[in-house]
Specification:
Layout: E1 4-9, H1 25-30, H2 32-39, H3 59-69, E2 83-88, E3 91-96, E4 99-104
Antiparallel strand pairs: 1-2, 3-4
Length: 111
């Protein structure tokens, strides 16, 4: 039985996608519907906006975010660099200056 799954993360500097969502971090990073929409290119309506607010987000993606977060919509700046990656086993999303990276337990010597 494989523990492989797809995860959303934002490697660009400035704002993390899930790490800036605190209360909903895990769901926003691993939700299968958000991953599917990201893979279909249904995240932003335009890549050229300097600031990203709700009117710049694809309606289907925004609807799913609101289903997960309710009125506690996270900061959307991390969507500009949103990526999908596949992980196996336990992992963490780490953030430095808004840049998220994936750290997998099976790829490192954890003590």
């Amino acid at each position: 039985m494989s523990n492989t799954r797809k995860v959303l993360y934002s490697p660009g500097f400035g704002a993390g996608w899930s790490t800036w969502a605190h209360k909903h971090s895990k769901e926003l990073a691993t939700d299968h519907k958000l991953v599917e929409l990201a893979e279909q290119g249904k995240v932003l309506l335009s890549e050229h906006s300097r600031m990203i607010s709700e009117e710049h987000v694809h309606p289907e993606f925004l609807l799913r975010v609101k289903e997960i977060c309710g009125d506690d919509t996270p900061y959307l700046g991390g969507l500009r660099d949103l990526r999908v990656t596949e992980v196996s086993g336990p992992f963490q999303i780490e953030e430095y200056d808004g840049s998220e990276s994936i750290r997998c337990k099976d790829q490192e010597d954890w003590w």
